[in-house]
Amino acid sequence: MEHLEFDYDGTGEKPARALALAGVVGSGNLEVLIEAADLGGRCAAVVDTSVRGFGETWRQVLADFFARHGLSDVRVSINDGGATPAVVSLRLDQAAAEIKDAQA
Amino acid sequence: MRVARHSFYEATARKRIDGLLDAGSFREFCGPAARIVSPHLPALGMPVAFDDGVVVGEGTIDGRPVLVAAQEGGFMGGAVGEVHGAKITGLLERALDVKPDAAILLLDTGGVRLHEANAGLVAMGEIQRAALSARHAGVPVIVAIGGKNGCYGGMSIVARSCDWIVASEEGRLSISGPEVIETVEGIEEFDAQDRALVWRTMGAKHRRLIGEIDALVADDVEAFRTAILGFVGRPRPLDLDALEAEHEMLSRRLERFWDCADGRDVWARLGVNDPASVPALDAAGFNGLVDALSGGRP
Asked: For this protein, what is the EC number (chain B) (predicted)?
């Protein structure tokens, strides 16, 4: 296991909902918990992954995610079972779509 | 074959609860934000899940208050670890306090999470005791089986300790899984790769025909909801007479079917005219057959 923590500039609105969960922890899959958090406008990410040595890839995938979605004051927590970057981005997008949706 | 519009089999635990309960009525206990995770998996270098693979809470079904637990079959095969088990036990113990119209368990599991060994085994005993306590208090405990993992191991014993079982054809119910039987008894005794054999032995249709399951439904969340609703507020008797009747039924079954080598032989002896056609029947056709055989637990 490897534990990673990242911190990014916030670039948009606070989320509409308190939290959202996407995905299930399994081989090649992950769960993404995204929560509203008082971070002074910044965004944080915490990753626990079964595969060691991919910290730089995680940093880039998460930077791309926050840049695309324009979020602030959110914390992303991930339990990962060895998902590829494409699957990680998909789950992040699903979680973001849900936390932004006030109707959901 | 028709593809169900809202497949129970394909849905996650959370989607199953969403489809089962009245919209917006579900309130989760110990949800993912609480991060009550397995204390054992990190020591083994394995990832945890924020809900430890089971969703528990309360809500309403057609306006009636119920407690519900749903195992997430995608996380470690729905296997029961210490936290996972404690969440189900706590939910069933809550039934004693709030007296809901039913406690509903959506099971999708291989049984004990062997990584957590004794803690998982202890959890099984605790869940079974809590289920029987809820029943003793007059709260019906309803099981639904229709996920990828079926319902195996200790949880199959729990399921048969409950009031009612609803399953889709995709569901399976057995103590030992196919691979375990093949490993222990040899491939001549049981070929785990023979899926038709597996379903003839453990599948929901067979379990329905021999009286271990109370309703067989299509793989559709709405069909599960309708069938479960039919059992809400309907506890089965749990007393010495009921237990003795159950033992009597099991003894008669052993005498009646002991020499059958295949599920088809059992069905023929039950009066099914064309046993070979049973696996291909859809839920409606199959239930017509069950009705014709007079239904119920033999």
From this structure: 4.1.1.88
